[in-house]
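User: Is it possible to get a 3D structure for a protein together with its bound compound? The compound here is zinc ion. I've pasted both below.
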Amino acid sequence: MTEASFIGDEWHCKCGNQPHTDGFYPCLRTGRYVDPMNDTWYDGNFYRCARCDAIIEFDPATDIGTIVGQTDAEFAEMDQP
Ligand SMILES: [Zn+2]
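Assistant: Yes, that's possible. Here is the predicted structure of the complex:
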């Protein structure tokens, strides 16, 4: 475990995941993966860690993200990134 920080393009999850390893994917507040091109991403700015399922809320105003929760939301095959 490492200290989590999400600043600009430099994302380091508490699990050690980074954008170039397992990555992060747009999700709803519930943690359900969603296509960012789809209108259903109405919750905006939420991302899910593909490794530990943390939910990160990213604030474009400050360019900083914070972990706001953890999800165990199941997702259908079609939800997978
Ligand atoms: Zn993680």
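The chain has a mean pLDDT of 86. The beta strands are 5-7, 10-12, 24-26, 46-49, 54-59, 64-70.
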